[in-house]
């Protein structure tokens, strides 16, 4: 897998996005960090990024969001193939401890789960 230089955060919670951006910037100021508030917005961003050959290498995906949640985003990417994310690692972010949700994520495209709140150590474990 290519080194990570571009990260897409998909999360509707502004505080979580702010914290994640801050943690990532503190780890490596060269990361290009993009954000989307839901899965639908993220799909549109990814289609544009694909046209410019600038797909992110890492997606941090919240599960519970309005408009299109994380699971629907994974389903859309996996079934319809609008965006080929073969070189992109997808990590589900959740505050939930629900084993059904964790199993559902693992049955789709997600590489792993990270429990919220995020820490520098948790992020480091998936980036490096």
From TrEMBL:
Where, per the database record, does this protein carry 4-aspartylphosphate? 62
Q: Which domain of life is it from?
A: Bacteria
Instruction: Give the Gene3D superfamilies listed for this entry.
Output: 3.40.50.2300
Kindly give the InterPro entries that the UniProt entry links to this protein. Answer: CheY-like_superfamily, Sig_transdc_resp-reg_receiver, TCS_response_regulator
Q: Where is each Response regulatory domain found? A: 6-128
Q: Which UniProt keywords apply?
A: Phosphoprotein
> What is the name of this protein?
Response regulator
Its organism's taxonomic lineage begins at:
Bacteria, Pseudomonadati, Bacteroidota, Cytophagia, Cytophagales
């Amino acid at each position: 897998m290519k080194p990570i230089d571009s990260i897409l955060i998909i999360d509707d919670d502004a505080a979580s996005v702010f914290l994640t951006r801050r943690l990532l910037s503190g780890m490596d100021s060269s990361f290009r960090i993009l954000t989307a508030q839901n899965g639908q917005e993220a799909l549109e961003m990814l289609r544009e990024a694909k046209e410019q050959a600038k797909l992110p290498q890492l997606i941090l995906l919240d599960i519970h969001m309005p408009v299109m949640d994380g699971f629907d985003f994974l389903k859309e990417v996996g079934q319809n193939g609008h965006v080929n994310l073969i070189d992109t690692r997808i990590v589900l972010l959740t505050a939930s401890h629900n084993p059904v949700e964790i199993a559902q994520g693992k049955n789709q495209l997600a590489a792993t789960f990270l429990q919220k709140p995020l820490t520098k150590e948790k992020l480091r474990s998936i980036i490096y």
